[in-house]
Amino acid sequence: MELHNPFIYLNYDFGIKAVFSAVLSGLICSAIGTYIILRKMSFIGAGLSHVAFAGIAFGFFIGSSPTLWALVFTLTSGVVIWYLSIKKKIHYDTTLGILFAASMGLAVMFLSLSNNYGSEALSYLFGSPLIVSNFDVLLLILIAFLTFLFYMFFWREIYLITFSEDIAKASGYNVELVTFLAFLVMSFAVTLSIKAVGALLVFSLLVMPAASAFKLTKNYNSFFFLSVFFGFASSILGVFLSFIFDMPSGAAITLSSFFIFLTSLLRD
């Protein structure tokens, strides 16, 4: 196995974009991951990532932008999940299980009809710096800004909702609005992180940094910021490992996140 000098890749445009996209994805996903972990919604990352891949496959099928259709699919699914859970009292996992199965069926069907089982489709599954554009990086910067703006404006509401919706409602907070916005942030986070991390592995950034931080902290503030730090660390470490070993960036980032999680268990 041939090892590569990772810093050589930083001399190229795609290497810079790979680092920026991975780090931004790590920051966004690990931030919203704190909400996901405390609400016990870990499966939502896997569900939305598969929905996004169905959108990507549909984009290939009609010859349009895969990212655009992935965003349409995930935003629609996010709204549906929110509506059924808030208005119809159907638990998240039930709706996600249905969407998970249906989206995988749609993805296989659209890829089959478009005859696109090649490297381009696989790059969306496992992540590839070669398909990250300047526009993708700009979108990630925008979503990162909006994600942290969301937390800044709704910090107390998010804190109360994650521990008790009833207390949040009794305190006069708009639980439905905050939950709706959280689902929108999740949808954007999953879709725009797919090129850097891959549809199959993006949910690892939504779960593992937050899970690691949860094991090591005792209050919400430190939990949030440590999760974001772990998201940053696993992303930067993963993308450099992908350069060194010439492996998909998504796999390297996931393994880095897993290593951090295993390390967090040593505290016990």
Automatic annotation (TrEMBL):
InterPro entries: ABC_BtuC-like, ABC_TroCD
Pfam families the record matches: ABC-3 (PF00950)
Residues spanning the membrane: 14-38, 43-62, 68-86, 98-117, 137-155, 167-190, 196-216, 223-244, 250-266
Record membrane topology: Multi-pass membrane protein
Major localization listed first in the record, in broad terms: membrane
Keywords recorded for this protein, A-Z: Membrane, Transmembrane, Transmembrane helix, Transport
Top-level division of the source organism's lineage: Bacteria
Entry's Gene Ontology BP terms: response to zinc ion; transmembrane transport
Leader sequence segment: none
Localization in the cell: Cell membrane; Membrane
Gene Ontology CC: ATP-binding cassette (ABC) transporter complex
Family classification: Belongs to the ABC-3 integral membrane protein family.
Protein name: ABC-3 protein
